[in-house]
Design the sequence.
């Protein structure tokens, strides 16, 4: 889709949904369209989702659903950008902060706030990553206070406990990492991201053969053909194990 057609498409969508914006609601059609675009994990579609959401947000009041959706979109964009990563992550974090302010009981708002805190720390380097650990942990714990079935929060905590230095420097704990990812998989057994994380934790526990079996299951999932970042991560781990 060229730039002109893309602009016309976005404009048409916004015109069709103006009535919902005037009412001050988080129009379900535009949210569904944006999340459908994000699910492709392709940069042009992520950018289209951002255009849709920002145009709609400009016409309505602060709305947590729209705001955390934008936070998610900017995280996806930053993950897939060679340049401007930090800018995209910080933009997403600002939207997540607004989402939390708009609804202090929305677990998605805290989840994307925490995820973006983590990305900003990783992008700035190891020292900043250490300073980001506590806020990230607190955000995910808040998610689980609101919704203890929120599988992605357990997934993020598993990654945090697996990667962070251990006590007394930080919160790293391999046993907790395993516990968290096992809970995530109980809630969503076929999630390939969780399977790859489980494989990483099993490697940390020196359970190489089990890690290989789990990776094999992850590679069989159709999502691996869509999410090239996840696939690359899994392939790197597989190469280390072979």
Sequence:
């Amino acid at each position: 889709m060229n730039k002109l057609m893309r602009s016309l498409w976005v404009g048409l969508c916004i015109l069709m949904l103006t009535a919902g914006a005037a009412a001050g609601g988080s129009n379900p059609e535009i949210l569904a369209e944006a999340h459908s675009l994000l699910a492709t994990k392709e940069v042009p579609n992520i950018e289209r989702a951002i255009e849709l959401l920002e145009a709609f947000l400009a016409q309505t009041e602060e709305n947590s659903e729209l705001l955390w959706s934008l936070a998610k979109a900017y995280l996806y964009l930053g993950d897939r950008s060679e340049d401007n990563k930090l800018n995209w992550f910080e933009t997403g974090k600002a939207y997540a902060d607004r989402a939390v302010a708009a609804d202090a009981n929305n677990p998605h708002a805290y989840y994307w706030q925490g995820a973006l805190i983590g990305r900003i720390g990783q992008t700035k380097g190891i020292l900043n990553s250490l300073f980001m650990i506590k806020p990230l942990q607190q955000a995910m714990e808040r998610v689980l206070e609101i919704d203890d079935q929120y599988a992605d929060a357990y997934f993020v905590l598993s990654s945090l406990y697996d990667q962070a230095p251990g006590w007394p420097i930080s919160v790293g704990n391999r046993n907790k990492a395993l516990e968290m990812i096992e809970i995530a998989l109980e809630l969503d057994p076929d999630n390939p991201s969780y399977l790859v994380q489980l494989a990483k934790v099993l490697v940390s526990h020196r359970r190489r053969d089990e890690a290989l079996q789990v990776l094999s299951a992850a590679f069989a999932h159709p999502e691996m053909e869509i999410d090239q970042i996840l696939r690359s991560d899994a392939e790197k781990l597989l190469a280390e194990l072979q």
User: Anything to note?
Assistant: The longest helix spans residues 126-146. Residues 14-26 have pLDDT under 50 and may be disordered.
